[in-house]
Amino acid sequence: MDTRKPAQDFTLRIRRYDPDSGEAPYWDEHTVTLEPHRSVLEGLLQAKAKYDGSIGVRCSCRAAICGSCGVRINDKPGLACHTHLEEALKRSKDGKITVEPMGNMPVIKDLIVDMDAVHWKKINRVTPWLIGKTPVPEREYVVDRVSMVDVTQTMACIQCGACVSDCLSMEVDPGFIGPAALAKAYRFVGDPRDAEQQQRLKDLAEDPNGIYNCTHCFKCVEACPKGVAPMNQIMRLRRRAGSDHHIDDRNNGHRHEAAFVTLVKQGGLLHEAELLPRSYGGDSWFGKFAPKAGAELVSSLPVITKAVLRRKVNPKLALVPHKIPKQDVKAVREIFDTIGSREERYELNLYVVGDDKDLEQPVAGAVEDRSTT
Amino acid sequence: MKVAYWPGCVSRGFTPELHGSMAQVAPKLGIELVELDRACCTGAGVIAEHNQELADTLNARTFALAQQELAKGADLMMNICSTCQGAQSESQERLDANKVYRDHVNETLAKENLTYQQGIANKNFLWMLVEDYGLDKLKEKVVKPLTGLKVGPFYGCYIVRPADRLGIDDENPRDSYLSLVIEALGGTVIDYAGSHKCCGFPIITMKKEASLTMAARNLGDAQDADADCIVTPCPLCHLNLDLQQPIAAKLTPKPLNMPVLHLPQLVGLALGLSPKEIGLNKHVVKPTAVVDWSTSVIAGVGAEGGGW
Known about the structure:
The complex is a heterodimer.
Chain A: E1 8-16, E2 26-34, H1 40-50, E3 70-73, E4 76-79, H2 85-91, E5 97-100, E6 107-109, E7 112-113, H3 116-125, H4 145-155, H5 162-166, H6 168-172, H7 179-189, H8 197-206, H9 219-223, H10 230-244, H11 253-267, H12 272-281, H13 291-309, H14 315-319, H15 326-340, H16 350-353
Parallel strand pairs in A: 1-5
Antiparallel strand pairs in A: 1-2, 3-4, 3-5, 6-7
Helix pairs in contact in A: 3-7, 4-7, 7-8, 7-10, 8-10, 11-12, 12-13
Chain B: E1 2-6, H1 16-29, E2 32-35, H2 46-50, H3 52-71, E3 76-79, H4 82-97, H5 99-109, E4 122-124, H6 125-133, H7 135-141, E5 150-153, H8 177-184, E6 188-189, H9 208-224, E7 229-232, H10 235-243, H11 245-248, E8 260-262, H12 263-270, H13 288-296
Helix pairs in contact in B: 1-12, 3-4, 3-5, 4-5, 6-8
């Protein structure tokens, strides 16, 4: 970013709304004069100082560490203090920088949202503190380096709410615990010092608004200004709950995963007609006869009938699916068996080990995800 | 042009019209498809959720099989499924980033005498069309421009996020390629709120109402924007948006009737293939507006319209 460029005009298009006024939201435009490397927050503060002192905006540190100034800039969540005016202008569609309050949270005034009503409520839901193991050691708990570096990714969260703002599951289902709180949950599930990992996982797997309510859309990964990658942490919670603790949740989460894995192992390709009933009824050929699977089949019957009549779904293929050649099925099964027989899962955590390009000496990148049972 | 072709599971299962239409479109474009018929499921993110190393090894095996075809003259590896692209890109990111990990995975593949060499050009049909085939060449192949057809793009999450993993930047704005292709085919791009959102499919068995509400809202947005149809490069999105549309419609006050085309079908229409040839008769939501458009265009290429 060139900091020597002279000041220029930037037009900010700010969404204004005061729920107490009884008036509808409206767009307010102000032109500010600043050097291009200055932040959108500085633009907002200049507009507030020069034109309209009533513009509502939260801010504190101006250094991307307090998380106060989370807003939406040109329809994307981010920190106003961490977004250069020049960059924001480049991303605008009409030459104006659009600034709105974050989504999925009620607006208190203009760009200020009610974090208590959504974000903090959900953070509190996941017991956001360490429950230490007993007996308490005489000195300190010792944590291995890899585990500690691993949880620093979630510790980097500054609670700005950008991921909550963009979460597509929360958009349709406000009850979802959401990316920020679930990333916070991993911070303790991934901490070897925590005594309640099993209970935390069971709680979050069983809750209909828990880990299996994430739609895997990557929005929170893109939104986070600190590289927390909340969705990745949610997937790791699922991996711990399902693969390590074998928690058979009531949301079909683990059953769906287990059925998917089994079917690919059996035929090399996914057999969708078998996956759906097994996700409800259990991971075996008999799963489709379970009451839950039957109920789902009945409710889907109109759609299935239509799909069969249109020849979208071929009844023959539904019973006898595509498979890859026999010798390849055998090879695939061997891969499953080889990896399944490892005493510990082998995972590469790029957050811990970095990229070979960043390192003089490549290092092994195993994060040992041990079960705590 | 020759590609090592990965059709995925769903295009041969619940969306056979996708695999079928790609098979029809490829020769028209002059693309030879060398199908990777020994390759297995990418895991769609679900196997990675179970065991990351397993997902990466299965995908490395597919890459290794594709590299055998590349060595024989194929130009690149190509898929027709956004979800496969996303799952494969995620595995490739890890495999390419760390030699120790790659060697470890290759040890498992060694039993089949397979090795994944770092770096493979693996592209969705959409990316390949824009970056390798070229929009100018595509325009030359159009015999029945989609003039007057209003098409809303629907990408699917796995092909647009996260941008850095998927190689999306100012030079390669892959998250706007559908619009470029629609325009190249002569259609009108309809911008609507849901174009880059989630179809809801990944939680269809876990939170059905939320899943179908997502689908309903996206379809409703496209309908409100006056689209004749939407087009997607993702067969899983197609399942939630087309197959489940009658159920999704019950979750929204407005009636829904939004045809959902696979990308090769849209290309096929412009290349002069009939609706039946590209499998439009297999959709749950009849693409009446598209077929009406198709039959109303006098292209002089002998393509039959209709054919329900």
